[in-house]
């Protein structure tokens, strides 16, 4: 059995949920955790309008209230002509996974999120992502350089693997994030769609692991 977190580093509710998941993950050492990136805004080409910027800031306020996580709103407001393309950040998660399959994927995911939301960095920029992820990988025991990471991030195979993640999420019927799945052999169960706190999340995982089967509160999905 393992958990699968489907999310996007530039989804603010995934930022809040990542903290909750990190808090409870240690209580389930028997469950590994994989991440499938969803590409919520992948391929965007138009700069955010003022209305779109304010819409996101509204979500940030709700996530901050629910999670207690920090947000650098001023850096976001000051960034002119910003295209909210989430593909580069998603691809950074995939690149780290390809470089170090056994790495703690959630730590990489959350480091990228922290760079964007708390530090006000532009994580649509490959060089910025390379600095964040190379430092995180090195801290986690997988030493690399920003240059080496950037080379993998740019590879066609990494682009293709990222697109496959997007497709897999959609094959599973997941179009909103975050989502948490439980894989049990050839079966896949949807445990959570949307933000929940650590206490509720812990209870959901405990109940599902013990049952080893879907109940009335879980939606069963099949592999494509």
UniProtKB/TrEMBL annotation:
Query: What InterPro entries does the record point to?
Result: Thioredoxin-like_sf
PANTHER family membership? DSBA FAMILY PROTEIN, GLUTATHIONE S-TRANSFERASE KAPPA
Q: What is this protein called?
A: DsbA family protein
Q: Which organism is it from?
A: Dyella halodurans
């Amino acid at each position: 059995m393992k958990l699968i977190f489907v999310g996007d580093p530039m989804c603010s509710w995934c930022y809040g949920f990542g903290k909750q998941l990190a808090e409870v993950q240690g209580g389930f050492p028997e469950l590994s955790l994989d991440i499938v990136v969803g590409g919520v805004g992948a391929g965007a080409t138009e700069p955010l309008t003022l209305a779109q910027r304010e819409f996101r800031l509204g979500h940030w306020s709700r996530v901050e209230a629910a999670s207690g996580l920090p947000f650098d709103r001023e850096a976001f407001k000051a960034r002119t002509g910003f295209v909210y393309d989430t593909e580069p950040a998603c691809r950074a998660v995939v690149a780290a996974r390809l470089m170090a399959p056994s790495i703690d994927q959630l730590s990489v995911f959350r480091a990228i999120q922290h760079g964007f939301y708390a530090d006000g960095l532009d994580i649509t920029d490959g060089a910025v992502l390379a600095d964040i992820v190379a430092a995180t990988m090195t801290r986690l025991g997988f030493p690399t350089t920003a240059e080496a990471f950037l080379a993998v991030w740019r590879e066609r195979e990494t682009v293709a693997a990222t697109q496959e993640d997007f497709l897999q999420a959609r094959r599973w019927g997941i179009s909103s994030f975050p989502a948490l799945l439980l894989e049990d052999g050839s079966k896949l169960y949807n445990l959570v769609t949307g933000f929940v706190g650590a206490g509720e999340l812990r209870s959901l995982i405990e109940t599902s692991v013990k049952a080893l089967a879907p109940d009335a509160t879980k939606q069963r999905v099949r592999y494509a």
